[in-house]
Amino acid sequence: MTEMMTVTAPKPPSDINKRSLPGSIILHVMLIIASIAMVYPLLWMVSASVRPQDEIFSSTSLIPSSVDFSSYVRGWFGLDISFGRFFWNSLVISVLTVTGNVVACSLAAYAFARLRFTGRNFWFAIMLGTLMIPYHVTLIPQYVLFLNLGWVNTILPLVVPKFLASDAFFIFLMVQFFRGIPRELDEAAMMDGCSAFRIYWKIMLPLSLPVLATAAIFSFIWTWDDFFGPLIYLNDMNTYTIQLGLRTFVDSTSASDWSGLFAMSTLTLVPVFFFFLFFQRLLIEGIATTGMKR
Amino acid sequence: MRTPAGAISVERYQGAVAEGRFRRLWNANAPGYLFLLPWLIGFFGLTLGPALISLYLSFTDFDMLRSPGWVGAANYVRIATADPKFSAAMHVTLTYVVLSVPFKLTFALLVAMALNRGVRGLPIYRAIFYLPSLLGGSVAIAVLWRQLFASDGLVNAALATVGIEGPSWISHPSYSIYTLVALSVWQFGSPMIIFLAGLRQIPQDMYEAASLDGASKFRQFYKITLPLLTPVIFFNAVVQTIDAFKAFTPAFIISGGTGGPINSTLFYTLYLYQEAFGNFRMGYASALAWILVLIIAVFTAFSFLTSRYWVHYDD
User: What is the average pLDDT across A46-71?
Assistant: First the structure.
C-alpha cells in the first residue's frame, strides 16, 4: 500500500500551466488569503499571550494595544510546580525516545533489509501487521504489566518500549531507505571479512543519516506532543510532561489567567516550530515518500 | 551395525553432519536474529502477549482489584444491546469520521491542485499549509481551539463584526462536534503534501494531448487527474479514516475529559479511557478495544475490496 507513495524527484512545473498575469494574480491572492486564515489562530494565540487581560476576548486583531511579557512569568510559575520542571521531563522523555527509536529500529531494519536468515519474510510481514493494530488493544495489559513492575509514575513505560522498537513504523521507513543503498558496498566489505555489525555501524548508518534524521525528528515531535501516554502513566505532578502541565493549567483555578495560559501554550509549541523552521525539507519529504499522517 | 575398520561410524558421521548442519544454521541465522532481538522481545512482550491477554480480559470482569473472573460474552452483549454510552460514542465517532475525512481530503486536494500549477513561492505556501498539521496534535492547539469557539471567543467576535450572534459552540451539544471537525479539517496539510507528490507523477503530456483535442479544464480534471490520482486518494482516505477513529486529545481537552456536553464529544477512545482508567472496568474496556479493532479491520477490508472497482493502478 505504501510503495505506491514513493515519488521520483519533483519535476519543474511545465509551461502548459503558464498562465496569464491576471490569472496568476488571482491565484496568489486566493492562496495568500487562505494562508492568512490558516495561521491566523496561531498568530492570535501568540499575540493573546502578551495582551492585557481585558483585551483578549474583545479583540479580533493581532496587534495588542500594549505588550506585556509578564504573562510568561506568571504562567511559568502558575502551578505548584514550575513549567521548568515539565519542560525538563518532556525533554528527557523525548531525547530517550529518539535514542531508542533510532537505535532499535535501525538494528531491526538492517536485519530486514540486508541479512539473510530463515523466517525473514515471515517476521517482516508480522512487523508490517503490527503497524495496523491500534495501540488500544495492548494498552490495558501493558498498563497492568508496568504497574506490577512498579514503573507507573516513572518515565520507564514511555521510554523502555522504544528501545524494543515498539514504533515499528520507523523500521519500515528505514528498511525502505536501506534497500536503496548499493549492495556492492556491504558485499565488498563482507568479502574483506567485515562482520555484520561492523557493516551496519561503519557503512549503513553513516550512509543513512537522512532517514535517521527524519525518524529522529518525527519521533521527537510525536513524543513531545504525546498526551495519552503521559496521561496514563504519570500521575505525580513532579513527573508531568508539558502537555500534562498545560492540561492541569487549563483545569486549575488560574484558568482565568488567559494570557498566562496562552503564554505557556506558545512555549510548548516552540520546539516543534523550531524543527519546522530548520528541517522542513526532511519533514515534507518524509511525508511525501511514506505517507505519514502528520 | 557393522562398521568397516578405519571408517567413521555412521552414528558419528551423522552426528558430525547434524553438528555441521546446526553450525551452518547458526552461522546463517544468528546475526539476523541478533539484530532483530530487541524488536522480537518487544513484539512478544509488548504486542502479541498483551494483545492475547487483552482478548482474554475482554471476556472477564477484571477491575484491577480482584483477579479476573470469566463472564463469557457478557461484555460484548452489553456493548451491543444495553450500553447507551457506547451508542453515543459510536454516533459521535462516526459523525466525526464521516464529516472530517471528506472535508479534509477535499481541501487537501483543492489546495494541492492550486499549488501544482507552477505557482511561484510554492515552498512557502506548502510550508504554511503544512504547519497546522504538525502542531495540531498538541494540547496547546486544543486549548486554543477551546478559546476560539467559546461563547466570547474569537470566532464569535469575528461573527459579531458582521452582525451575527454566534452560539456557544463548545458548550452546545449540537455544535461542539463541529468544532472538532473544524480542528481536524484545519490540519489538511499532510494529505495535501501527499496529493502534491501524487499530482507530480501525472505526465504533463497527457494534459497537453487533451487540450490539443479540445478537452476543457474540468474534463481534464475529471478524465485525467482524478482517475490517475485514485491510488493516492485511496491511501489518504484509509489513513485519515483510521486516524479519525483513534482521535483522543482534542476531545479530551475541549470537554475537560468528560466527553460532554451530553456526550456530544464522547469520542470512542475517550469512552474507552473513561471505562479503563476512570471506572477501572478493565475487562469491559478491553472488549471496547477489540470492538474498535474489529471496526477498523472491517472498514479496511471493505476499502480494499471495493478499491478494485474505483482505484486505477497504472501497471
Answer: 80
User: Which 3 state secondary structure label does DSSP give A60?
Assistant: coil
Is residue B180 within a helix (H) or strand (E), and if so which, with residue range?
Answer: helix B176-186
CA distance readout (Å), A208 to A109, A179, A186, B81: 11, 11, 13, 53
User: Which residues contact residue A216 at a Cβ distance below 8 angstroms, ignoring those fewer than 6 apart?
Assistant: A98, A101, A102
A225 shares its domain with A158:
yes
Q: Could you tell me if residue A215 is inside a domain? A: yes
Q: Are residues A203 and A138 part of one domain?
A: yes
Torsion of CA B64, A132, A101, A5, to 10 degrees: -160
The residue from A42, A68, A94 where one domain ends is: A68
Domain boundaries, chain B: 1-40, 74-310
Instruction: Provide the pLDDT confidence category of residue A294 given band limits of 50, 70 and 90.
Output: low
Query: Which positions in chain B touch A141 (Cβ < 8 Å)?
Result: 49-51, 53-54, 57
User: pLDDT by residue (tens digit) across A62-109?
Assistant: 787 778 888 898 889 888 899 999 999 999 999 999 999 999 999 999
Number of domains in chain A: 2
Residue at A219 is within a domain:
yes
pLDDT in tens, A223-234: 999 999 999 999
Residue A107: its chain B contacts at CB < 8 A? 35-36, 38-39
Rg of chain B over Cα atoms, rounded to whole angstroms, equals: 28
Sort out which chain A residues have CB atoms less than 8 A from B293's CB and list them.
133-134, 136-137
The answer to whether A128 faces chain B, any CB pair under 8 Å, is no
Boundaries of domain holding A52: 20-68
The pTM of the full predicted model, rounded to 2 decimals, is 0.87
- Any CB–CB contact under 8 A between B194 and chain A? yes
CATH of domain B74-310: 1.10.3720.10
Q: Please report the ipTM that was assigned to this predicted complex.
A: 0.86
- Shortest alpha-carbon distance between residue A185 and chain B (Å): 18
Average pLDDT, chain A: 86
A91 in the same domain as A61: no
Smallest CA–CA separation between B159 and chain A, in Å? Answer: 10
Give the dihedral sign, CA A120/A124/A126/A127: positive
* Judgement on whether residues A50 and A92 belong to the same structural domain of the protein: no
Residues 92-121 of A with CB under 8 A from B: 104-105, 107-108, 110-112, 115-118, 120
Q: Which residue of A has its CA nearest to B236?
A: A291
Amino acid at B293: V
Are the beta carbons of A276 and B46 separated by less than 8 Å? no
Best residue of B22, B35, B60 to probe chain A, by most A CBs closer than 10 Å: B35
- Kindly list the averaged pLDDT for each block of 10 residues, start to end, along chain B of length 315: 56 72 82 93 95 95 88 91 92 94 95 87 90 90 89 83 83 87 93 91 87 86 88 90 91 84 90 94 95 92 88 72
